[in-house]
Amino acid sequence: MDTIKNELDNKMEKKKKPVLQILGFLGIGILLAANLFFMHNGAISKSKEDFPQHYQIISPEIPENLDFCGEKVPIDNFYVKERIDRELIVNTYYHSATLLALKRANRWFPVIEPILKKYDIPDDFKYLSVIESNLENVISPANAVGFWQFTEAAGMKYGLEVSDDVDERYNVEMSTEAACQYLKFAYNRYKTWTLAAASYNYGIAGIDKQIERQKMRNYYNLLLGEETSRYIARIIAMKEIFKDPKKYGYFLKPADLYPAFELKDEQVNYRIDDLADFAIKKGINYKILKLFNPWLRENYLALRKGKTYDLKLPKEGTVKIISEVQ
To answer: Is the pLDDT of residue 39 over 50?
Structure first.
């Protein structure tokens, strides 16, 4: 009897296997069909709202017509086109730096633009400050400082005070004026804004030497070092991204942009022995005073003969002061 029972059990198992296999295949088929259906209808894949820029890794389109300060960029030349292509790719996909530059520009371009206009410097030069510092008071490995990256010698040459307690290279307005003076001088020398911009990176002496050596005066015909060869293309690429951020995948709302500071000027023609005490008397604190006046490099301000300093202070009620009471 046991033998007969075992045989019957084996037969039943053999009949079950094809049925289970068929059911398994049907189940997989149903799951695949459901998956495709939901993906098609956006239930599994990210929706357009999740990725409003339709994020893809693509090569940014190079505009057919480009100029710098009204001077035509010879984009039909292969190495010029490839330089522009490189910088568009680098700055399009250098997301954090470019995004922060777009945010900061809302605060600082309104400060820089009127000064450029005052000196008859083309508006495109505001993008030079972006590629130099990303609109921050940074210090380079060569000890160039500020938005416009002046060395100590160059800053002093163009009228900026650099001392123990004051470094006007950190003053955005004053360093912009110094940059304008330099660019005006360079333009009068070369009669082209493109070469004037290149000299900002390479130096007057360096550009003069290469013009004499290569017997060429057009920036695009000069063989220059890697950094200076990329320099104009970097400015142009940043200009194009700023002109149409959405085209390059940057979607910012007005609330994302950093607002301009609401400040008032306070003229100081006297020595301040303790800037912390001074700040408290003005209803702020030492940190806020330094944030709005980064050119103050010590905890005091010495008085120099015949010198008057303009301190930037926040207008009343525009800055939240954190209480000392916890």
So the answer is: no
How far is 170 from 270, CA to CA, in rounded Å? 21
**Burial class of residue 120 in the structure, from the number of CB atoms within 10 Å of its CB (0-12 exposed, 13-18 middle, 19+ buried):** exposed
Instruction: Supply the DSSP string of 52-92, one letter for each residue.
Output: TT-----PPPPPS--EETTEEP-TTSHHHHHHHHHHHHHHH
Q: How far is CA 312 from CA 23, 201, 265, 275, in A?
A: 77, 30, 5, 13
Q: What is the pLDDT of residue 17?
A: 52
> Within the chain, how many helices (H) and strands (E) appear?
11, 4
Tens of pLDDT, residues 126-145 = 999 999 999 999 999 999 99
Query: CA of 106: how far to CAs of 109, 134, 258, 275, 285, in Å?
Result: 6, 13, 6, 30, 26
| Cα separations in angstroms, 55 against 52, 96, 163 | 8, 15, 49
User: What integer pLDDT is reported at residue 6 of this predicted model?
Assistant: 47
- Intra-chain end-to-end CA distance of the chain, in Å: 88
Query: Between β-strands 309-314 and 67-68, what pairing exists: parallel, antiparallel or unpaired?
Result: unpaired
Q: Taking a C-beta distance cutoff of 8 angstroms, is the pair 288, 134 a contact?
A: no
Question: What backbone phi and psi angles, to 5 degrees, belong to 132?
Answer: -75, -40
DSSP letter assigned to residue 308: -
Residue 162 DSSP code: B
Please give the biggest Cα pair distance in the chain: 122
Mean confidence (pLDDT) of the chain: 88
C-alpha 326/C-alpha 321 separation (Å) is: 13
Tokens of 210: 């290469």
Rounded to whole angstroms, how far apart are CA atoms 88 and 212? 31
CA triple 169-171-177, angle to 5 deg? 80
SS3 139: strand
